[in-house]
Specification:
35% helix, four-stranded parallel sheet, alpha/beta, binds zinc ion, 401 residues, binds pyridoxal-5'-phosphate, globular, Rossmann fold, 15% strand, single chain
Length: 401
């Protein structure tokens, strides 16, 4: 509707919209640019009051032309939960958690899949392929099933079991690899070259990020168009972070928010922290992280295609990058469940661990409004929790402690 061009952020080449696009000839991811002047005239904040509670409420800022191509399970407008108890303990009372655990398929990968698959349908794609650590595979398989597109998915053998089952029930062509997501990527690359399939890998098509940027729109809207001071995001490929950065810039362009960018924080696991290392070394790109390992499987990405865009967003927003150990992540996951009743995924829990660390170092101030982005439900990661309750016979009594 309002798409103007598809642009390379590295070499500024413009591509015309309406044809299947992958990366720029220079290898960089491509970003969708809209006609913001036209959107400013056609789309007013007040119009949102009458729209459905899905990410499609920001229709004018999304790339799909024809409504008939939209594949939606009602994704978006996830709750913004005030963490009153933990916030008080941390002396950061304005602490919030945006809970993507409530979205279809259980993780925020549904946002990228909804917009990515809708665009694939609009472009007439019949087969798409992607490497995944699990959650994207589950989401894209489901949306592809609804769109009648064949999904070829390759994931590491030790990705969570539930992700295999999600792909299987949705009828995807699933393959496992004895290796990391980067190894799955190599297999997918070869298959795409041989079969001429559409490459739906992270940032190798320009639309997944358009779905993920809607988190920024929702955060702004949920705070009545006053953006928070800090947003903490568990970063793997970094699509959500780059997406939110783009989303806030678009809202500024429309004049819906002031020219204030939240400080964006990328949190990674100490077992796989290429972005944090590059940030600390003031590098523009990451090195490949050897032998990466973490329970937060969604952020086990040893080298991301869009790493330079993540680092730029951190720099421009006056943010930072921090790494947390898996035991700190597990402790934060426990705390969120005990104090707030929220069973979050380990990636989401990492954001609380990071917040605690940043509060201790006075990087977060007591009057900062802070949003933790929980990217998925803990229900998809049952193995992160131990439960060994006593077993009773039917006639046994419960002894009060
Ligand atoms: C994929 C994933 C992430 C990382 O997302 P990126 O945008 O690729 O950095 C974080 N959390 C969960 C649960 C994920 O599945
Ligand atoms: Zn380029």
């Amino acid at each position: 509707m309002f798409v103007k061009t598809i642009t390379c952020p590295r070499c500024d080449i413009h591509y015309s919209n309406g044809k299947p696009l992958q990366t720029c000839s220079c290898g960089s991811p491509l970003l969708v640019q809209y006609d913001y002047t036209a959107i400013r005239k056609a789309f007013k904040k007040e119009m949102l009051n009458k729209r459905g509670n899905t990410l499609w409420r920001y229709r004018e800022l999304l790339p799909v032309k024809n409504d008939a191509n939209i594949v939606s399970f009602g994704e978006g407008m996830t709750p913004m939960v005030h963490l009153k108890s933990i916030g008080k303990r941390m002396e950061t009372p304005a602490l919030y958690l945006k809970d993507e655990g409530c979205i279809p398929t259980g993780t925020f990968k549904a946002r990228g899949a909804a917009v990515g698959v809708s665009m694939a349908r609009e472009l007439g794609i019949k087969v798409l392929a992607m490497p995944t650590n699990g959650n994207a595979g589950g989401a894209w398989s489901s949306y592809c099933a609804a769109a009648g597109i064949r999904a070829v998915i390759v994931m590491p053998q030790d990705a969570p079991d539930i992700n295999r089952r999600e792909c299987a029930i949705a009828g995807a062509d699933l393959f496992l690899v004895n290796g990391l997501i980067s190894d799955a990527g190599k297999i997918v690359n070869r298959a795409i070259a041989e079969n001429n399939w559409y490459d739906a890998s992270t940032l190798r098509e320009p639309y997944r990020i358009e779905g993920k940027k809607t988190m920024a729109f929702e955060i702004a809207e949920q705070f009545d168009w006053n953006v928070p001071d800090v947003i903490i995001y568990p970063t793997g490929g970094g699509v959500g972070l780059i997406g939110m950065y783009k989303g806030f810039k678009e809202l500024m362009e429309l004049g819906w928010i002031e020219a204030k960018m939240p400080r964006l924080v990328a949190v990674q696991s100490a077992g796989c922290a290429p972005i944090v290392k590059a940030w600390d070394e003031h590098a523009e790109e990451c090195d490949f992280w050897e032998s990466s390992r973490t329970i937060a499987f969604g952020i086990n990405v040893p080298k991301a295609l869009g790493d330079f865009l993540v680092l730029e967003a951190l720099q421009e927003s006056h943010g930072c990058a921090v790494a947390m150990c898996d035991h700190e992540i597990i402790a934060a996951q426990q705390l969120l469940a005990l104090q707030e009743g929220l069973f979050v995924c380990p990636e989401g829990a990492a954001t609380l661990a990071a917040a605690q660390w940043l509060v201790k170092r006075d990087w977060i101030n007591p009057d900062d409004r802070v949003v933790l982005l929980n990217t998925g439900t803990g229900l998809k990661y049952p193995d992160t929790v131990r439960a060994d309750p006593p077993v009773l016979t039917p006639n046994e009594r419960i002894l009060s402690p």
